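Q: For a teaching session next week I want to show students how multiple molecules come together into a single three-dimensional assembly. I've collected the sequence lines for a complex. Could you give me the predicted structure tokens for the whole thing so I can convert them for display?
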Amino acid sequence: MMVKKSSRLTIVSTLLLVPLAILLLTAAGGQEAEGPVEISFMITPADLPDEDIAQFNETHPNIRLVRTEENWTKFVSDAMAGTASDLMRLGSGSDVSYYVERGLFYDMTEMLQNSEKIDFEDIDIQGNIEYRYQDRWYGLGKDYNNVSGITYNRDIFDAAGISYLSETERITYQELYQIAEELTQRNESGNVTTWGYDFSPTWIPFLASDIAYMKGVEIFTPDKTQINDIPEVRDIFKFFAKFPVNDISSNVRNPVPGWSGAAFAADRVGMVQLGYWFGAQLQENEDYEEKYGWAPSPVWEKGGPIVTNNLGVTGVVMYSGTDHPEEAFEVFEWYIAGEIAEKRATTGWGIPPLKSLQDELPRNNEYNRSRLEIALEDAKHFRQAQSSPYITNTMWQGVWTSNIDPLVRGEITEDEFVDNYFEDLNELLEAGAAELQ
Amino acid sequence: MALRSAIERQRRLSFYTFILPWLGGFLLLQAVPIGWGLVMSFTNRSAFGRNLRFVGVENYIKLLTDPEVLYSFWTTLVFTISSTLLAVLLGLLFALLLERNVPGRGAFRTLLFFPYLIPLVAVGWIFRIFLERDTGFLNVILMNLGVTDRAVPWLASFPRASMIVLLIWMSGWSMIIFLGGLSTVPNELHEVATMDGARYFRRLRHITLPLLSPFILFQLVMSFIYAMQEFIRPFIMNPRPMRGVQLTDSAPPPETFFVMAKAYHTIVGQHRFALGLALLWILFVAVLVLTMLFLRFGGVWVYSEVEDKR
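A: Of course. Below is the structure for the complete assembly, covering every listed component.
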């Protein structure tokens, strides 16, 4: 049976047009409908639980708050497509300059200055400093910490016969190294069973920045497109490389099970620099009050300048392409200054970004009092981490990780390590700078 | 004649009508992105770049003169050849053993094929835990047997070998292919050879392997292509500690920083799209050329009942 020409045309047209229509209808699904405005918040469930979302949605009928998976890889592709979440939880505020230079974060300065919920004068400037770039505000920390502050395991100190650290007198970084060396334990076959000290590669830019400030040098060249390759800066990275090279910290040869904090909680690490928030996590252990001690951030030289950091502070930023900045800011205000913020402050997982909420922090026992006092003292010496708008902290961390192994294995010298490390960093900085030209 | 031509037209029309949705999908979702990727690899495209410009083969030259990239290709090739050969040889061995009517044959076949059914990510995690230095089961066994008195950090000291072992564990797929191939070998040939006094290994050499050779070549080629594109397992079996961050945030050690993983890291971790895309194109060409060479020279020893008319 022959099919008429007109019928053939109908079949072909249908086959072509139906998928196209479906495609268009799907695309049109994003158009605004009547009802509350949807604000998406890229954040972990731990930092924005379902019950808080439900509570917000109940009390704010004009907004429907939804949580999206925290995934910065997805953020990059979403931002390229102009469809990123309205609000984001940013792991480290030191990345603010990188994203601002690429036009991705909303300038919230006027919003914060005119906010009725957040008193601008109430903002703890020093604690939130990483969210200020070129005198403009791009968000606030959800809570901050003295991440260079020391937490130590008294049992491991006792086993090594080392006296506890002072809560008021700062040790130097050299002393930190010596104590860590003495704390490190190996079994008969030479494998490390207890590491004296451990740090994550994420910490490196911040600890290096503190030391650079204390030495009075800059890690980057003035235009931020290169690493400042001078002996003082090289020595900072050589100093941190010594820990894994000498098996005092975890390395590819003697890796810690899990990450530094988990290994510390499992009595496998003597000291960590994690600061105030870590104290809340350690309270999950029964004998936490007796077992863990606190000490302020180390200094480079006794009697020298004191500089500490807050690892960039985990905070909240707004996507510059949001269609609903007012509603997104309403969520922001609630998250930073509302009931959820008060609740967060009482847990002792971090120092609130608003001074008025800092009275809510737990001081119920010696343990909580001690870690808080040290944190607040350290906070007085916070400095904005030396960073470059041409590289993210994650990129920086990746460069350390890929370069440290050959040094640990003894395949290259210390100087070759620094050369390779700087070369890789400079390549990324150069690419980042070229991106903005 | 006119009727015949009308029927032919009708057939063609039906063919193109039915293939049209697929063709549309292919063009829109595959050909266009692939073409876009090729074009972008000749530019300075980055995630948030402001001025897109054509840079010619600059990215390709940069990659082909970068010792880290060349090492990545080298280690990918070493991994591919080792894992492919071992997986195919083991699969063949298992197939030959389980072709026979031995007790528990079905159970063994199931057991050997079972690892292949477990998702890639789960297999990676199983091996990561199995090979862990302090709590890994392998070290517990070896130390209890007195083979070693020192817990070995397998993932850190032997990252590539750990990955190869994992792939060998999954050689059940090759076994299934070869069992299928063995079932096509006519039994009469074995019977005749046996009557002529040929023993097992002689029959294996002169009957089984030649008739199985097309399957072996197929399996070698497919395993080779898959192994060259190994991606997620190096990240899962990364000996470095993980802390709630994305699996791909931390680069694997150089030995297992295979080309696909490196390209992903360049694109996603460093936001250098054009460079990463160029790396993927180099990988594509390398796989294509090596596969063609493989087929060209592999075909020499493959038995075929179809007469070669070359």
